[in-house]
Every structure is written in structure tokens, then in C-alpha cells.
Amino acid sequence: MTKTVFITGATSGFGMATARRFAAEGWQTIITGRRGERLDALKAELKTPCHAAVMDVTDKAAVNAVVAALPAAFTPIDVLVNNAGLALGLGTADQADITDWETMVETNIMGVLYCTKAILPQMIDNGYGHVVNIGSIAGNWPYPGGNVYGATKAFVRQFSLNLRADLVGKNIHATDIEPGLSETEFSQVRFKGDADKASQVYTDTQPMRPEDIADAVYWAASRPRNVNINRIEMMAGCQAFASFNIVRGLT
Length: 251
Known about the structure:
Layout: E1 4-7, H1 13-24, E2 28-33, H2 36-45, E3 50-54, H3 60-68, E4 79-82, H4 98-126, E5 129-134, H5 147-167, E6 172-179, H6 186-190, H7 195-200, H8 210-221, E7 231-234
Parallel strand pairs: 1-2, 1-4, 2-3, 4-5, 5-6, 6-7
Helix pairs in contact: 1-8, 3-4, 4-5
């Protein structure tokens, strides 16, 4: 039986790798993102049926319109992967740009809510589904400059658990995948196109690859129905927990 996965932010990084991973397993894909030319290229590459739709997850009306206009062959949706998200800036809370904070909240929180709310009715009607949210270790472990980004990912973690609590009786699973150091366009977006600054994040490291996260997404979504994976926290082999920050000399 053909299964369908709906992926947000499929134009790069985790989302693109996830589309490739599911397609390799025979799933048909619905790929969305803001860059149409990248969606078209990915669609042409995939070997299974694919529907591509340009969509900004922060636009509730656009999300609802895309879901409402899905071809019948691509419904109902079996798995939703809420991947679209971003970090902006690395300044401390007193220095951060409030518009960056607003954009992170709109994308990382509201985008997840809009997509989940738009697609859940299909899953409810079908009596089957799985919502996979892409969180971050930043939602678990604070670091300087992580302020609102980390807070949005903490929301994603708790929302995922609450989805599971609400939907367990309706045969809908929920999972939060929480990656750490991974090399994608993430740092270029965070530093607003400053490639040199972004590259320094990965200097002399072996970060995780998008394919590593895609493997975790697929694994969680392909477990037997008597198994729900609540959360997977992932770190690169070169990464571990930070020590407590102690500032000396304060009175």
C-alpha cells in the first residue's frame, strides 16, 4: 500500500534529505518550501510520485490552501514532517534584534502549528498518522545567544509530547527529532549569508550530515504501530554537554 509523507522546508538540508530517504523506500512525497526552482529540481530527481508546492509555513492561509488543493492521489497524508525552521543571530538577549525573535517564533512555532492543524483532520479521518517534528538540542541545553531559538525548540519538544497525549487514542503517533551540530544551510541563515562566519561553526569538526537526521526521521516513522518514539536527541560524535558557565567577580 502506497504511503505519503508531507515535508516542509524540503528545499535544503534535513528536509531535502528526508524526501530522498522516504522516496528511496517507495513512499510518495509532498515537498514544500519557499524556493520553487529547488522543489522542481528535487521533484525531477525523486523516483516515486512527488507533488511539489511553494509554501511559506508562516502564512496560515497559504498552508491551508496547499493542503486543500492536494491531488486526491496524495491523500490522506500518513506522515507529516514539520522540518521548516531557522535560527537568526547569536547575540545575547539584550543585543538581539526583536524582528529576528519574531521571525523565529513565527517560523519555528506558528509554522509547526499551522501545518499540524491543517493536516491532522486527514489523519483523524483515516484513523492513522504520524507527526514528526524537527526540534533541536537547543531546546534542551541552553547556550549563550540561543535565547529565543532555544525557547522555540523547547516549545516543539513539549508540543510533540502533548500531541501524543491528545492523540494516542486516535492511532496518531508523534515524535520530536532533536539534532545537534549538523552541517546544512542553518548557520548561513543564522548569520544572514555570512559564509565565512558560518563556516567557522564547523572548523575542525565532523558534524552530522542531513542524511543522518533523515535516517532518524524515517526510522521513527517506520516503527511497528505498537511502538511510538517520543523523542530522539542526536549529537555529533565531536559534541557533548557544555560545562556550567561560572562568572567570577560578580557581587
